[in-house]
Request: fold
Amino acid sequence: MALSTRNKVSIQFSMSGMTDIVFLLLIFFMLTSTLIAPNAIKLLLPKSSTQTAAKPLVSVSITADLRYYLGQKSISETQLEPALVEELQYREDPTISLHADKSVPIEHVVKVMNIARNHKYKVILATAPE
Reply:
């Protein structure tokens, strides 16, 4: 009398569950990468062959029509210094990333650099790669 087992083990593996997870992760990363905009203000930056690897804490942008932005928030020229002091007062090693359109007169760039020098902040002038 031949006895056979009722429970047979299947040696096949279904990849459908794994592909669903991979596609969900792909969609998640595609959506989150489009939400990240480091500097959404459109500027034509001057070109440079060297790049600095420091991570700035605050971004100051000056547009071609001489409007100032602290991060993404528009700010007047007179309110820039108090806003920078408030933003960086408790930060260790405060650094400012200065994004100035290449048509901006140098006196506006120097104004932000003088604010940084008076308060002992580091300044990184943002440039476009050559």
In short: The two ends are 84 Å apart (CA to CA).
